[in-house]
From TrEMBL:
May play the central regulatory role in sporulation. It may be an element of the effector pathway responsible for the activation of sporulation genes in response to nutritional stress. Spo0A may act in concert with spo0H (a sigma factor) to control the expression of some genes that are critical to the sporulation process. Pfam families: HTH_18 (PF12833), Response_reg (PF00072). GO terms for molecular function: DNA-binding transcription factor activity; sequence-specific DNA binding. PANTHER family: HISTIDINE KINASE-RELATED (PTHR42713), TRANSCRIPTIONAL REGULATORY PROTEIN HPTR (PTHR42713:SF3). It is found in: Cytoplasm. This is Stage 0 sporulation protein A homolog. It comes from Clostridium saccharoperbutylacetonicum N1-4(HMT). SUPFAM superfamilies: CheY-like, Homeodomain-like. Residues 148-251 form the HTH araC/xylS-type domain. Its main location: cytoplasm. Keywords: Cytoplasm, DNA-binding, Phosphoprotein, Transcription, Transcription regulation, Two-component regulatory system. The modification 4-aspartylphosphate is found at residue 60. One of its GO terms (biological process) is phosphorelay signal transduction system. InterPro entries: CheY-like_superfamily, Homeodomain-like_sf, HptR, HTH_AraC, Sig_transdc_resp-reg_receiver.
Length: 255
């Protein structure tokens, strides 16, 4: 396999012998996953996640203190880019349905069969490699995707693509995050929502175009910064600047 990237993995299982057996199986496979931590319950796993930022968490369902479903619920809310695989000793579709609700990528029955584990990991690998290509273009290491790095990633992306961005939902989907999570992290580190940040970039660029290229029609200015509707562009501009684009240009016409 032509893969040069190794992804971090954490295994969570309260039975030590079963946990070691799973780890042994993972290590026996020629798949680029590196075991960086193991835990016996969800609480310990959450602590490891916050320290190690893994790409994948494999977890049992039934565990003391904090079970597997609580763990994946936490991951879904706080680290939606982290993939997860659920392990269970019995085929319970109710658990499976709940797990899918929180973004679990696979559901394996114990005792874990090597071929089934291999298939599940290969599927996860395809997802991670696809996302890794996007992240690598911004020099962000997927294995060190801390919230502040994610915020910087999004900021760089917005600066580069503000004129063609359709919605934050599209961006979130592109990088494998939820809209809510991406917006929350971005606002935490920049003080504004992604939408307001895009608008600020567009309006600043519009000001420059209006002043420096007086021959450009207002409609064309709007199109160049990402607004296809000239009337909508004018309304957004006035809402942020206080005057319409035409009036703003007139202010600088004789300067």
């Amino acid at each position: 396999m032509n893969n040069t990237h190794t992804y971090k993995i954490i295994v969570v299982e309260d039975e030590p012998l079963i946990r070691q057996n799973i780890i042994k199986k993972i290590n026996s496979l020629s798949i680029p996953f590196e075991l960086v931590g193991e835990a016996g319950n969800g609480e310990s796993a959450i602590s490891l996640v916050e320290q190690l930022y893994p790409s994948l968490v494999i977890t049992d369902i039934k565990m003391p203190q904090c079970d597997g479903l609580e763990l994946i619920k936490y991951l879904h809310k706080n680290h939606p880019h982290i993939k997860s695989i659920i392990l269970s000793g019995y085929n319970d579709f109710k658990y499976a349905q709940t797990a899918l609700k929180y973004g679990v990528k696979d559901f394996l029955l114990k005792p874990i069969k090597l071929d089934e584990l291999s298939t599940a990991l290969q599927n996860i690998l395809v997802m991670l490699d696809s996302e890794n290509k996007e992240l690598s273009s911004f020099s962000i290491d997927p294995n060190n995707l801390k919230p502040e790095n994610l915020s910087q990633l999004l900021e760089n992306y917005l600066l580069k693509n503000y004129a063609s961005i359709i919605s934050i939902h599209d961006i979130a989907e592109k990088f494998g995050f939820t809209n809510e999570y991406l917006s929350k992290i971005f606002k935490k580190y920049t003080g504004v929502t992604p939408i307001k940040y895009i608008t600020k970039i567009r309006i600043n660029e519009a000001k420059q175009l209006l002043i420096n290229q007086p021959e450009l029609e207002i409609k064309k200015v709007g199109e160049l910064i990402g607004y296809k509707d000239a009337f909508y562009f004018s309304r957004v501009f006035k809402s942020n600047v206080g005057v319409y684009p035409t009036d703003y240009r007139m202010q600088y016409k004789d300067h």
